[in-house]
Amino acid sequence: MKNLLLGLLVAGVMGLAVWTYSENYATKQTLDGIVQLNKNIATARSKLRVLNAEWAYLNRPERLSKLVNANFDELELLELTSKHFAGLEKIPYRILGSELMVDEIKFNTRTKTP
Amino acid sequence: MIRKPLRPLAQIFSARSAGEDPDLVELTNRRERAEIQHGRMLRKTQRRLIMIGCIFIISFGVIGMRMTALAMTEPREPKAQNSINDISVSRADIVDRNGRILATNIETHSLYVHPKQLADPSGTALRLAEIFQDIDAVKLKARFSGKQNFLWLRGAISPEEKQAAHDIGDPGLLFGPREMRLYPNGKFAGHILGGTTFGKQGVHSAEVIGVAGVEKEFDELLRDPKSNGRPLKLSIDLSVQSALEKVLRGGMQLMNAKAASAVLMEVHSGEIFAMSSLPDFDPNNRPIGLTKGDQSDDPLFNRAVQGLYEQGSVFKTFTVAQAMELGLVEADTMVDTKRFRWGKYAIKDYKDYGPELAVEKVLVKSSNVGTARLSQMIGANSQKSFLGSLGLLVATPIELVEGSTAKPQFPSNWSEIATMTISYGHGISGSPLHLAAAYSAIVNGGTFVSPTILQKSVSEVGARIISKNVSDQLRSMLRDVVRTPEGTANLGEVSGYSVGGKTGTAEKTSKTGGYDAERVLATFASFFPSEDPKYVLIITLDEPEDRMGVEPRRTAGYTAVPVAAEVIRRVAPLLGLVPKIDKLMNKDLALTNH
């Protein structure tokens, strides 16, 4: 009986040792995984920062203004001023089902066809 | 175990037959048994001692080995805690009120050299000089052959430069990771942002520290890992700032001014939507400050915040406001405007406005004499405390590191003559930002405004300075300064928006003493829309000169006012203000592409 108990205890200790061993390595592996994951997050964030910075750089007012000037013939963009506002009744809404097209209303828009 | 009997019969019998005492047999056996037992006990004790000894040796051996291992290896933080910090160590971004990036970080590299490991020092020096234009190959070669084991070459290099340096292929050239502050908009809002520099530098990282502007003011907050990368949101609107800077730059050139500044502030919250000081600088490449000459010519000098100037007639608004608030006069009360002498000083106007003017006209026509008379009614102490309540006697609480240095200057002895000159803006100096906050208080219904560069979620109503009624009357009078042909700012009309304001032309002090009539500081303190003011705009031009006419014109009405009108024409739609379109009704809708 005593030997059986001793045997069981030894077996228990050995079992626990194996479990601890495997847990230890599993934990280490998970930690490595976390480190890798955090590295990936940091890399992704850094890429995002670069992209955001690039987006901000490409959209800097100075460049946009140059682009507007360079493409004026095509886009005809002007600075927004008070003359670009008008009363609602001045907006030439298109009437559904009618033949009246936007162009027929005296509407100062581009006549270029796409 | 079979125990040997103490009196074995065989021995007893043989002892008896030999005539010996059989008890001796027992005694002998007893002694033998005791000896055997003693020997066994001794071995057992020895075994135990050895075992305890072994346990001690093993335990101390393990502890000793662990201590040796710990002492001999590189210290390393636990993985689980360390890796989390890696993610958010960088300096927080700065964004405008709409979340557009004003300052961010990018990862780049530093370049350093281990001269002793260089395979070809002279060749490497030559090729490095080709990559970096400002490196002198001969000097660099001399440094490579010195005694140093380590040399910094560049704090931060671009990816192209890194590749080029990498292509040299010398093992002595090494790269370290660096985080670099980037201001994608270049010069825009340069004075507000300030700039950064590298603090403590190591091979693996470098500390980025703010040197001016919000970068320095909020340095700790921006570097605080607890903020977890949350950006710092400013009250600046990038579109508005850009339009303002563009117009101001153009206006400065057109008016031949040597410098200019502008502040655009929301009148209730004190939030600064745009602020500019020209000449400016690019915070990506912050210049070195001037070491000689006039410090105020330094592009690093933020005129809008740091520049303390006598601002002239714009102060008349405060005098009229106080006189009306105290009930001393009404808008139509007549005031003596005949020139007079006070001691050795002559109080006179730019031109003769006749013997008397209504208070309203004193402001519209900008009469020094009329304002001086009002200040006589107010008195020195009362005037000082009123200007104090507008925040004109202390440094502004603006969240820029430069703000606290701009402490207004005024005479320590607030005499009667000082009261008179201060009433029209002479003998007291303040910054354009002071003026913006004070004008906001005058036109917003009469409550104190504290300027801020941060976006506010809730705006608190400040202490009351003047009554709503006086504020309304002032608004109407200041509107007349722009609206009526006799007003000093009649070039300030903007189609669709009603503008009110007051001009100020202050002669600068001459180097030889006294004032120099040809060097003036022209200021226009304006607000719009005048019926329900939302924004205050202060435009200041330093030494402007409109040379388009026969005679050069320097007064603010011809210089600062047209610039301010153009700024308002451009920024008001961007600020979401809908113009009054009554006059436009008969016109066709003009699209942006027409």
Largest pleated sheet of chain B: 5 strands, mixed
Q: Output the radius of gyration of chain A.
A: 36 Å
Head-to-tail CA distance between termini of chain A: 98 Å
Shape by Cα distribution of chain B: elongated
Which quaternary structure do these chains form? heterodimer
Question: How many separate domains make up the residues of chain B?
Answer: 2
Q: What is the CATH homologous superfamily assignment of the largest domain in chain B? A: DD-peptidase/beta-lactamase superfamily
State the low-pLDDT regions of chain A, or none: 105-114
Q: What integer is the average pLDDT of chain B?
A: 87
In whole angstroms, the N-to-C terminal distance of chain B is 122 Å
Task: Give the fraction of residues assigned to helices of chain A.
Answer: 55-70%
Count of helical segments of chain A?
3
**What percentage of amino acids of chain B are in beta strands?**
15-25%
Number of strands of chain B: 18
> What's the count of strands of chain A?
0
Beta-strand percent range of chain A: under 5%
Average pLDDT taken over every residue of chain A: 83
CATH-defined topology of the largest domain in chain B: Beta-lactamase
